[in-house]
Amino acid sequence: MCNLAYGSRILADEESFRRLAPYQQPTPLSDDPWLERALDANLLVHDGPHDPPNSVARLVAALQTYTGAQGSPLELLAAAETRFRAHHMPTPAKEDKGGPLMRKPERLVDFAFDHTRAFLTHDQQPEQGLDLALVELFSHRPAMKLRYEQQYCTPHTTQRRVARMRQNLKPGARVLVLGDDDLVSLALLQATSDYQVDVLELDPDLVAFLKEKGGERLTVLEHNLRHGVPDSMRAAYDLVTTDPPYAANGMRFFLQCAADSLKPGPDSRLFLSTFPGLIENPDKLWTDLQELGLNIEQRHDHFSRYIYNNGYRVEHLAALRALGSPLHPTQELLGFPFLYAHFFECSLQR
Ligand SMILES: C[S@@+](CC[C@H](N)C(=O)[O-])C[C@H]1O[C@@H](n2cnc3c(N)ncnc32)[C@H](O)[C@@H]1O
Questions:
Q1: Strand, helix or coil at 307?
Q2: What is the pLDDT of residue 102?
Q3: Which residues line ligand 1 (CB under 6 A)?
Q4: CATH code at position 224
Q5: Atom of ligand 1 nearest to the CA of 279
Q6: Domain membership of residue 231 as a residue range
Q7: How many domains does the chain have?
Q8: Does 39 lie in the same domain as 180?
Q9: Can you give the pLDDT at residue 94?
């Protein structure tokens, strides 16, 4: 099992879940390395202090050396950002060299500082209260597939999204999930018996998994959203949620499907997870939302967490280094464990 917190992996079977069960309430932790790892992976709560992960100590040391300053991690980060932007901004590669990352290196720098700041602000200590039953259910999920642009969030994020969405749901509400590698539908059904949930999803393995685990209150259709929502699902839902592809064309048709499937009226809601700093065309997101009549009512910044895998980390470091960024502190600035996304609550102005 992986994709939990701090990039930790923990091997777990049914016995493991029995061992973890007592630690769902704050409990003194015995001197057991397995439990320590489970703590790092956010699978248990305990009632003592917890050391920050090693990556934070490395980051602080690198920032002290780079700035020559002392202070809290956030103060050091601010000083380092000022110095980095003044002296070490990478210069764009020529149009024909490398991919979009190499052509827009300033976005990589924004990303590194933004994510490090978000991590230091929100996630130095593991968050409490992960639902173990959810983790056990999720541990049977099919493998992540890049060909469907999948990048699933942590179980804790799914759990928090569901808690947030439930504040807008009345009994009997109809909910639609557009693409569900985050398994929001299963978490919603597990949390309450009040609603009917439908999913449109392209990945046949995920469709089979959701059908097997979802039971009678879940309807899952294997469907390509490029073809729009089926006629029977238009203007039918009180709440729609989605985490669209980051590629520009994918974002547009997911949002179109969301707008088309919501019931007209002031109470309908779209819950959208995305990160403008990483999507291919951030400016277009705002115009797409406006054109589709989707009005942002609330935004929760850095709400969703996805594992920042080493493949991406190495790619980002290599791009910045090739464009002239210093090894230190660039390497340490890319040491955070999560990719973040904001959570937007939108109404439909139609
Ligand atoms: C688009 S992915 C999440 C993307 C992620 N935010 C990113 O780009 O890093 C969310 C879900 O949509 C599904 N999906 C992708 N393309 C789809 C399509 N054309 N129709 C329906 N579902 C699709 C995926 O299988 C996945 O379960």
A1: strand
A2: 64
A3: 148-151, 179-181, 200-203, 206, 224-226, 243-246
A4: 3.40.50.150
A5: 8
A6: 132-292
A7: 2
A8: no
A9: 63
Dist CA 245 CA 335 (whole Å): 24
8 A C-beta contact, residue 157 and residue 134? no
The 3 state secondary structure assigned to 73-112 is: HHHHHHHHHHHHHHHCCCCCCCCCCCCHHHHCHHHHHHHH
**How high is the pLDDT of residue 4?**
46
Ligand 1 centroid distance, CA of 217 (Å): 22
Tell me what the mean pLDDT of segment 132-154 comes to.
Answer: 89
CA of 224 to the centre of ligand 1 (A): 10
Q: What is the residue with the minimal CA distance to atom 11 of ligand 1?
A: 179
Segment 45-89, tens digit of pLDDT: 777 776 777 788 999 999 999 999 999 999 999 999 999 999 988
Beta bridge partners of 239: 175, 269
The structure tokens 């449109």 sit at: 200
Whose C-alpha lies nearest to ligand 1, atom 4? 245
Nearest atom in ligand 1 to the alpha carbon of residue 203 is: 25
If asked whether residues 45 and 136 sit together in one domain, one would say no
For residue 202, name the pLDDT band (cuts at 50, 70, 90).
very high
The Å distance, Cα 178 to ligand 1 centre, comes to 8
Residue 321: pLDDT over 50: yes
Q: What is the Å distance from ligand 1's center to 32 Cα?
A: 39
Selected residue with higher pLDDT from 56 and 230: 230
CA of 150 to the centre of ligand 1 (A): 5
Q: In terms of DSSP H, where are the helices of 41-72? A: 54-67
Cα of 182 to ligand 1 centre, how many Å?
A: 10
CA distances from 328 to 103, 165, 317 (A): 22, 41, 11
Residue 241 lies in a domain: yes
pLDDT band of residue 249 (cuts 50, 70, 90) is confident
The minimum-distance atom of ligand 1 relative to the CA of 274 is: 6
Q: Can you give the pTM of this predicted structure?
A: 0.92
> Per the structure block, which two tokens stand in for 75?
């103060």
Q: Which of 292, 319, 345 is the last residue of a domain?
A: 292
With bands split at pLDDT 50, 70 and 90, how would you rate the model's confidence at 192? confident
| Alpha carbons 136 and 202: distance in angstroms, whole number | 24
Residues 150 and 271 reside in one and the same domain: yes
Pocket test for ligand 1, best of 141, 145, 150, 308 (most atoms within 8 A of CB): 150
